[in-house]
Amino acid sequence: MKAMVKAALTNFQKFFGLPPTGKMDGATEKAMQLPRCAEKDMSPDELHTRRRRYAHWGERWSKRHLSYRIHKYSQKSLLSRAAVDEEMALAFAAWASVTDLVFRQVSEKADINISFFRGEHGDGTPFDGKGNMLGHANRPPGGMLLYGPRRHHPPDLCLNSSFDAIFENPDGIIYVLQGRYYWKLSPDGFVNSYPLLISHHWAELPGDMDAAFATSSGTTYFFKGTKYWVYTYTRLHPGYPKLISEGWPGIPSDIDAATWYTSSVFYFFKEDVYWIYDSRQPSSVNGSRPMTEWGNIAGDLDDVMYIRSGYMYFFSKGHYYRFNCKTKLVDSVWPDQQHYPRAVAPWWFRCSSKETKA
């Protein structure tokens, strides 16, 4: 078994141009998180018999001037037909710039036919959902380009610094979640090899979380809709997910943000109100309170994070406030520093001004 795993890893590394060590390392793990191409996986038998990375088909175009036609447009595209035509024209222009071929779009019979499909489309290679097979083509002279549903690529937090959740683990590592992905943060910004899929670290956890926090004991809570999940590092506690109404009576569903404060006190936020949950009290929650109690911090939050140094950070739409839990005020800064709210991208993600304007 170990020999088979090593052989599979070695072939994978060769395919991606990585050192063929046969061992799992950071670069190999990152390559495994990349979106798939349309090439099918090799079977165990092919690992020993399949060697070539390409094949010369023997066919080529018999003429230099080629026509193309978009035979079937996508029915659910966010682009208009005119925009699709323009993108295809740019693609063929790029092809023509490095060959002696000339392309023109036609509305009738063409040398190259382009279609957009979902799922099975009659050639035995179905488009199997978002994030999987993107498209494929037939060789000349029967040119046909087929495209499936669009892929999901990791969001760029330097361009859009809003996110779903943020929390600090007891070891001081900060995690940021957005969509199906998560990042680790260091004092210098994003840790290399990230983002990764949330399911890579928390196997049972869906994407698009509402909020998350980690306690000093290493227990992490994730909230989404009516449910919440509890993990100790990567291990899901038995019986989860559970309903928020069962585990946190008095706390509503679909919260905007949540944070741990002490071993028994937790804060939950939704729109323009918040709740203090104190597990030591007979009635853990005594109704909601207005966000105006936090000064000029408005509602509609991305998430809130308590740092053990005594600060609570409020994140909203790419900006953040630092709240001093001792003075009960938004923290003051030196006269020559930028006041709050500050932009998340440069202060937390260490994005350059060039990256935020890309």
UniProtKB/TrEMBL annotation:
Protein's name in the database: Matrix metalloproteinase-14
Organism of origin: Coptotermes formosanus (Formosan subterranean termite)
Primary site of residence: cytoplasm
Taxonomic superkingdom: Eukaryota
Reported cofactor(s): Ca(2+); Zn(2+)
Keyword field: Calcium, Cytoplasm, Disulfide bond, Hydrolase, Metal-binding, Metalloprotease, Phosphoprotein, Protease, Repeat, Signal, Zinc, Zymogen
Pfam (any one): PG_binding_1
Binding site for Ca(2+) 3: 128-129
EC number: 3.4.24.80
SUPFAM superfamilies in UniProt: Hemopexin-like domain, Metalloproteases ('zincins'), catalytic domain, PGBD-like
Residues the record lists as binding Zn(2+) 2: 37
Record-stated family: Belongs to the peptidase M10A family.
Catalytic function, reaction form: Endopeptidase activity. Activates progelatinase A by cleavage of the propeptide at 37-Asn-|-Leu-38. Other bonds hydrolyzed include 35-Gly-|-Ile-36 in the propeptide of collagenase 3, and 341-Asn-|-Phe-342, 441-Asp-|-Leu-442 and 354-Gln-|-Thr-355 in the aggrecan interglobular domain
Binding-site positions, Zn(2+) 1: 121, 123, 136
Cross-referenced PROSITE patterns: HEMOPEXIN, HEMOPEXIN_2
Domain Peptidase metallopeptidase, chain residue ranges per copy: 57-179
Binding site for Ca(2+) 5: 166, 212, 258, 304
